[in-house]
């Protein structure tokens, strides 16, 4: 048993678990707000941003999709502007490209109009387009109507994470996988890693992403949710000249997924995806990666079964697009009729850490909870990379308030 003992010096004031963009932004914010605060970040991988941060489409989201007043809406709108400024300040590759959200079916038109209203409520400039105007932005894209969102962009989020790590001045310990946590409300926290190293801090911040619920349990707090991993599979477009910028379908408001979209990245390549299929491991980047213990934990959570029973039709369509390239191509052709199966080249997948409640509900907003001497970030999928700077300040503020009260 690893223990915090009186009389033993602390290794740091704030101990952050997780070296993705949210954990590193938190470390950055703490040292900016309270210089001299000692921060240590434990990351199990040999470098930063190896999972959700480094395996997404690289989009700086505008915030148009999210419920007005929600953390996602407020932090994405604010975070998009801050991310562009941060990238410019530190010379990180980025561009403000704008994007199209395209309705291809009549039943999508009311949802498209609702997005216009939501965008305006969130303070986002939106231009409505008729079908004939779409080729002005994307000559190969077809649809009944669209909206253009000018504040959307792209950037190198891995580069952002590296810069946050460097600029924070925090001690970053890579290859440090958490094995045990001993939390004593009157003393602090002690973490033992799989290498046998023990790190003691006054306050713990849990930014463990795909494993955030497990870290919460190790700390002694019930997160009241479970992470159910969803793999997002991508293709690269062999003819990138077919797409100028970013093209999205109209999302289904019942799900937190945005649907298969087209993204011209910083490198000039065009990625298509992702879909959303259950992963057989929290880091299950293809069907061949299976971790029985993690699958068993997912199946043991009542919310996973209730979610599946509620959304099985949607899930069946996603599975079909995963196992059939033809089905995936058909989905893409709704937006981009010129594309063929030969144009789609498989590329790296990502896994979304989706928080699911006991009743089967998908947690739709960012979720941050506190326990004695601990702050847990329990739901931070997309647009968390976009919103990482304001999320980091929020988490830092909570950790520093906790630090000041002990």
Task: Please give a handful of descriptors for the protein shown.
406 residues; alpha+beta; nine-stranded mixed sheet; eight-stranded mixed sheet; 10 helices; 20 strands
Q: What report would you give on this structure?
A:
- With 406 residues, the protein is α+β, with helices and mostly antiparallel strands.
- The chain has 10 helices and 20 strands.
- The strands form 3 sheets. Strands 5, 6, 7, 13, 14, 15, 16, 17 and 18 form a 9-stranded mixed β-sheet that branches. Strands 1, 2, 9, 10, 11, 12, 19 and 20 form an 8-stranded mixed β-sheet that branches. A 3-stranded antiparallel β-sheet has the order 3-8-4, with helices on one face.
- Helix 1 packs parallel to helix 5 (157-168), helix 2 crosses helix 10 (388-404) and helix 8 packs across helix 9 (325-333).
- The longest helix is centred in the C-terminal third of the chain and has 22 residues, at 302-323.
- The mean pLDDT is 95.
Précis, in short:
The chain is an alpha+beta fold. Helices cover 31% and strands 27% of the residues. The strands form 3 sheets. Strands 5, 6, 7, 13, 14, 15, 16, 17 and 18 form a 9-stranded mixed β-sheet that branches. Strands 1, 2, 9, 10, 11, 12, 19 and 20 form an 8-stranded mixed β-sheet that branches. A 3-stranded antiparallel β-sheet has the order 3-8-4, with helices on one face.
């Amino acid at each position: 048993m690893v223990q915090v003992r009186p009389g033993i010096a602390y290794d740091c004031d704030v101990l952050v678990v997780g070296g993705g963009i949210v954990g590193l932004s938190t470390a950055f914010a703490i040292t900016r707000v309270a210089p001299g605060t000692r921060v240590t970040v434990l990351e199990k991988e040999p470098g930063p941003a190896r999972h959700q941060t480094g395996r997404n489409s690289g989009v700086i989201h505008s915030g148009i999709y999210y419920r007005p007043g929600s953390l996602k809406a407020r932090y994405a709108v604010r975070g998009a502007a801050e991310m562009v400024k941060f990238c410019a300040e530190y010379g990180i590759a980025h561009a403000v490209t704008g994007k199209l959200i395209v309705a291809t079916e009549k039943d999508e038109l009311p949802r498209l109009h609702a997005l216009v209203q939501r965008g305006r409520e969130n303070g986002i400039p939106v231009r409505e387009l008729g079908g004939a105007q779409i080729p002005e932005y994307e000559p190969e894209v077809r649809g009944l109507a669209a909206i253009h969102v000018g504040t959307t962009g792209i950037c190198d989020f891995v580069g952002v994470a590296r810069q946050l790590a460097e600029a924070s001045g925090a001690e970053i310990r890579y290859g440090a996988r958490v094995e045990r946590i001993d939390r004593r409300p009157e003393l602090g926290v002690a973490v033992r890693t799989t290498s046998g190293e023990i790190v003691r801090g006054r306050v713990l911040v849990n930014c463990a992403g795909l494993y955030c619920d497990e870290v919460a349990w190790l700390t002694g707090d019930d997160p009241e949710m479970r992470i159910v991993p969803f793999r997002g599979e991508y293709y690269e477009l062999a003819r990138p000249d077919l797409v100028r910028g970013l093209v999205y379908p109209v999302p289904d408001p019942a799900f937190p997924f945005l649907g298969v979209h087209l993204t011209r990245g910083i490198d000039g390549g065009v990625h298509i995806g992702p879909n959303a299929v259950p992963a057989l491991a929290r880091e299950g980047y293809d069907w061949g990666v299976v971790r029985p213990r993690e699958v068993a934990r997912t199946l043991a959570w009542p919310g996973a079964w209730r979610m599946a029973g509620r959304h099985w039709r949607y899930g069946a369509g996603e599975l079909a697009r995963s196992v059939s390239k033809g089905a995936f191509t058909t989905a893409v052709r709704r937006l981009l009729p010129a594309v063929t199966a030969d144009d789609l080249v498989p590329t790296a997948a990502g896994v979304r850490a989706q928080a699911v409640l006991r009743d089967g509900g998908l947690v739709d907003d960012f979720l941050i909870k506190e326990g004695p001497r601990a702050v847990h970030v329990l739901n931070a999928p997309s647009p968390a990379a976009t919103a990482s700077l304001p999320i980091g300040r929020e988490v830092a503020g909570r950790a520093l308030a906790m630090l000041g009260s002990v």
